[in-house]
Design goal:
The longest helix has 57 residues. The protein contains 10 helices and 11 strands. The strands form 4 sheets. The protein has a 4-stranded mixed sheet. The chain is elongated. With 387 residues, the chain is an alpha+beta fold. It is 49% helix and 9% strand. It comes from Rissa tridactyla.
Length: 387
């Protein structure tokens, strides 16, 4: 059997055989430990868990195919448009609401709220008796416990290995460390109907049906094969996302070069149009009022050509900018998955993210050198020469 209970950093057994905490919380006659003078910064480092449009935390975050994350309120406001308000990528669902939940960001919000309670100067109270100050956090039960309730908790779970840490130690750690530790304590549950609610822990992955299974399902159902360790599968998926992200960074360089080229082309077009307008005005002024009507026609022609070129470049710039924003969102999401995602979140979200990243991989930046130059002024020049 595993150890009855793990308490960081030390624990001991009392006379009845149960594990009791050592040096837990303030002792009689001992002043309580004062909180750290400077609390770790949480808000700035974890703004990415909020909606990317309104920048507010929400329990209902949706992940779009462009890999941007929006809350239901922003998506509802955006329904008539049917596009991502960040990069203007079309939302394929007719309702305008994506099917994929951003489980990573939603779960991180919940875990950060726990850390904020720990970092609060008053400190959390016991989740069970509600009367005493909490001295211990059990990551398995996700509860704060006072010394007395922790002793009862250990007796009840004496045959299970629950890792508990002092609130004082957690308060001294950073939010990043707390999220990493809580990620390690999460378990994957069996994907068979009914087993997840019963707490069947999954340790096996079926490559045939692409599901996580508990030992019972793997042994009793002969249709499942071949198997591999669930941790190996989650590592493989993380590595696959990492590889796609690195390849995406290389492709992003090509899109950035194209974007810069398009901006230079737009500036060149504006400069050429401005020079032509000045030339037209100089020539027309020489003819005074005899050809005012011709002057207006020439100016109208230049404006039409200029507007045509501007519209074409605007569409190209908008499309390339949208792709760049999607790539940036994909890189950030993969990075946060590597840092904070639980195995359950990897199993649920990886296929969706992978499809979106592979779609971005298939995109090719437009070649600026082969494009037809917009706003051609040949006709205008010919008429001016004739004039």
């Amino acid at each position: 059997l595993p150890p009855a209970h793990t308490l960081s950093p030390t624990s001991h057994l009392d006379g009845s055989g149960t594990t009791a905490p050592t040096d837990m919380g303030p002792q009689p006659g001992t002043p309580p430990c004062s909180p750290p003078s400077q609390q770790p910064a949480v808000e700035d480092d974890f703004q990415f868990v909020s909606c990317e449009r309104c920048r507010k935390e929400s329990p209902n975050l949706k992940l779009l195919t462009c890999l941007h994350t929006l809350c239901l309120d922003c998506l509802s406001e955006n329904k008539p448009i049917g596009q991502c308000p960040v990069c203007r990528t079309a939302i394929p669902q007719a309702s305008g609401i994506p099917n994929m939940d951003n489980l990573l960001f939603t779960n991180l919000q919940a875990r950060l709220s726990i850390y904020k309670k720990i970092s609060d100067s008053g400190g959390p109270s016991c989740s069970r008796c509600q009367g005493e100050a909490a001295t211990v956090w059990c990551s398995e039960c996700e509860e704060f416990l006072c010394t007395k309730c922790f002793e009862d908790h250990q007796w009840f779970f004496k045959k299970r290995s629950h890792e508990a840490k002092k609130v004082e130690e957690l308060r001294a750690d950073s939010a990043h460390r707390f999220l990493e530790d809580t990620r390690k304590s999460c378990n994957l549950f069996c994907s068979s109907p009914g087993h997840a609610n019963q707490g069947h822990i999954s340790s096996i992955y079926c490559k045939k049906c692409k599901r996580a299974l508990c030992c019972s399902c793997a042994l009793l159902d002969s249709h499942h094969a071949p198997f591999c360790d669930i941790h190996s599968e989650t590592r493989r998926r993380q590595e696959e996302l990492g590889t796609l992200s690195r390849e995406l960074k290389q492709k992003r360089n090509g899109f950035e070069a194209t974007y810069a080229g398009l901006k230079d082309e737009a500036a060149r077009l504006e400069r050429v149009q401005r020079e032509m307008r000045e030339l037209i005005h100089q020539r027309v002024e020489q003819l005074v009022g005899l050809i005012r009507r011709e002057e207006e026609e020439l100016l109208g022609l230049v404006e039409a050509k200029q507007e045509q070129g501007r519209r074409e470049l605007s569409r190209e710039l908008e499309r390339v900018e949208g792709v760049l924003r999607r790539m940036e969102a994909g890189e950030q999401l993969v990075e946060k998955m590597n840092l904070y995602a639980t195995e359950q979140e990897v199993m649920d979200m990886q296929p969706f993210i992978k499809d979106s990243l592979e779609e971005l991989q298939r995109l090719q930046p437009p070649v600026t050198g082969d494009r037809t130059q917009p706003g051609d002024l040949t006709e205008c020049r010919a008429r001016l020469q004739a004039l």
